[in-house]
Amino acid sequence: MQASAINTPRVATSSAFSVESRNGRPDFELAAALQKVSPQQQAKAQKTATDFEAMFLNSMFAQMTSGLKGEGPFGDTPGTGVWRSMLTEQYSKNFAQAGGVGVASDVYRTLILQQARTIRTA
Description:
The chain is mainly α. It has 4 helices and 2 strands, in the order ββαααα. It has helices spanning 28-36, 39-65, 80-97, 103-121; strands at 21-22, 25-26. The model is unreliable at 1-16 (pLDDT under 50).
């Protein structure tokens, strides 16, 4: 059998989320679910997944910087904690927008699969 004879679904991808493969293999379950979910819901799921990853990263960065005292970008002033929390928040948003650490893609997949199941059973 020729490789071109195999019927594989073509799935649209965005810059942050690759849905054509999962662990190096085609993700047919996600491809089928994407056909059932509207583009507006897909965009909303992408934003939700990215926001969740940013929140996760913010928590990680806050823990990483919680022990820092004294010299640094903000010195040892009374407002250091506030400025440092703002900095970690911006770091986390930028990391998530740039692709993150992989949490958003799994959250997105889960959201889409749940929405597709809801549509099927409704």
